[in-house]
Amino acid sequence: MEKPVRVRIAPSPTGPLHIGTARTALFNYLFAKKFGGHFILRIEDTDLERSDKKYEKDIFDGLAWLGIDADESPEKGGKYGPYRQSERIGTYKKYLGKLLADGAAFYCLHSEQELSAEKETLMAEKKPLAHWCEFRDVPLADAETKLGQSHVIRFKTPHNQKIVFKDIIRGELSFDSELIGDFSIAKDIDVPLYNFAVVIDDAEMKISHVIRGEEHISNTPKQLLLMVALGFEKPGYAHLPLILGTDRSKLSKRRGATSVIDYKNEGYLPEALFNFMALLGWNPGDEREILSKEELKNEFSLEKIQKSGAIFDITKLDWMNGEYIRKKSTEDLVALCLPYLEKIIAPELLHATSYKLQTIIALEQPRLKKLSEIGERVEYFFKQPEYDKELLRWKKMSDTDISASLEKSEKIITQFKSTITKTEIEKEFLKEIGDGDKGIILWPLRVALTGKKASPSPFEILEIMERDVALERIAIAKKKIVA
Ligand SMILES: [Zn+2]
What is the DSSP letter of 75? Predict the structure, then answer.
């Protein structure tokens, strides 16, 4: 029987969950789900100074919002826990002790000054920046007598060895141990460093495949050396392409490297971001761009991941989010929009008017890209808009033309005694306009009603807006013109 698929992400809680980590989580999750395996969330919080519980929570919340559910995690527990590195120190200590006892690791007693002096010399001589430590063959018992001074634990790297592994995305990758040197694996027996702790956790948690960002490629040979020394089985490897901005530079904070929760607050739907991230370096092999979670689970494969950088295009995300907004029932969309409406429209206006919120939201549903846009888009339904008089002017209309235009609109609307339907009022207006320029009548009217350059048609608005409110707004517009 083949080994069960077990994959993981191991973020450090030193900052919020950003898109890069979320994309890695998503690819691991999809791979696990495709093969009925487990997706594991492990928290790498050994850097006690920089780790913060608030960021740990941000990671949990962000993944939960996206629907990337871990099968094993600090919150959920699991057979191979604990899932926080800070709770696994005893385990690391056991393996460090073993490597030291076997002579596979040793105490390097060089001071930081000595090491940086060596580095400068190597740089000046244009040699590889590898520290081949003269303490590597000092017997452990001797070294232990000198531990008062500064020290780290290093791995005793074999000379002149080729370290080769097959990456599922990139094919065979090869490294020369001469360029690596005796690398540090722990500050002390109970302070493990990254490359060491990862190897131990992955082995203990029976990780079958390591799927992670490209920036980890250079860590892989070190981790493989440790696995050999510890007699661990090697996992499969897949290194994901970098995420780049549309100008192909590394993603900056401003364009996407922000927290996943920021996307939530901006009004992106989790299913849209899920879909969007799945296409950051992967595609289904055809033109489809909108893929449901189920489709992605079935179709995802590591083999189809590209080697070159994945472009993060925010306009594509906006488009995709709009597509997902269109899929919502109006009822659900109202509920999603409410928190954003409440931010800019006073609750007494929002809930005490006779306007039907559902109708207003339905009017915007075909155009909306982000939930956060809703307040600004529909605010005019709830209060008299502020706008500059000049906005009422269509092309080269004079003030007199505008006043006359508004009066015509006023007259037509007044004919309607109570309910206005879109079709009926449109018919009346088109009768009035005839073959003339529609803008001459409809532009000043639309601006009078909304105060906006762009909005739904005045007919759609008049169907929802109370007749008397509409007439009052036209009166205000007329006053602006004569003022
Ligand atoms: Zn040394």
Answer: T
